[in-house]
Design goal:
Elements lengths: L2 H34 L4 H9 L5 H21 L4 H32 L4 H7 L19 H16 L4 H17 L5 H24 L15
Helix pairs in contact: 1-8, 2-7, 3-4, 4-6, 4-8, 6-7, 6-8
């Protein structure tokens, strides 16, 4: 096990403890508070941006990135090194999102935690392992995983824009709690899985001497 993997494992223990505390003491009162604010303008703002977490938006960005790289390669003087660098970067983004998304959906079904809407409607807050449809399973948050893997991948691809990408991820993942789509514990777990996927895939690409940035500078591969 590498030092990075040990750090992720240790962080996972911390996230598990935080998530357990959120589930036990925070999730229900926080969800009920935001539900009481449903008609406010600021909740409406988060409702307007929450769908930007959709994975299909960011898969489309990656596919367009691949297409743009191909068209530039065909229309201009061929630069095989640049073409391969761009192709690797977008494949990295797709693989990171897809692998973590599949894992998240499997966990959702296995854990079967009800979404907040069932708390608002029926007053229930239960777990039904392998007993709910995917649409009713809330833990971990798939939208949080989607937006964070996309923004982390883009942060590796375009390092100077990381503050912008991470700000977007924070806002949109927070929206999942504020609009009542997920509990805070769901979002925390989804965020951790996204980080693990992005970091481990980047490590795999680097181990095989494959940069995931669009800059050929060796300093960007650290």
């Amino acid at each position: 096990m590498s030092a990075l993997q040990r750090q992720l494992l240790l962080a996972g223990v911390g996230v598990a403890l935080i998530t357990a505390a959120l589930i036990t003491w925070v999730d229900i009162p926080l969800a009920l508070f935001f539900e009481s604010q449903r008609e406010t303008w600021w909740v409406a703002f988060f409702e307007a941006i929450t769908d930007f977490a959709s994975g299909w938006i960011w898969y489309s960005v990656a596919v367009l990135g691949l297409l743009a790289a191909y068209l530039r390669h065909k229309r201009r003087t061929p630069d095989p090194a640049k073409f391969l660098r761009e192709t690797r970067a977008w494949i990295f983004m797709i693989v990171t999102m897809a692998s973590s998304g599949i894992f998240i959906n499997a966990l959702k079904l296995a854990i079967g935690r009800e979404r907040p809407r069932l708390l608002f409607r029926d007053g229930t807050h239960d777990f039904h392992p392998f007993g709910l449809s995917l649409a009713d399973c809330g833990f971990p948050s798939g939208h949080t995983q989607s937006i964070w893997t996309a923004m982390l991948a883009l942060g590796f691809i375009f390092p100077p824009l990381r503050p912008l990408f991470f700000s977007v991820a924070v806002l949109i993942s927070a929206s999942r709690i504020i609009i009542g789509a997920h509990y805070a514990g769901d979002v925390t777990a989804g965020l951790y899985i996204a980080v693990v996927a992005a970091v481990l895939w980047r490590q795999w690409f680097q181990r095989h001497d494959l940069s995931v940035t669009l800059n050929s500078s060796p300093s960007d591969r650290a």
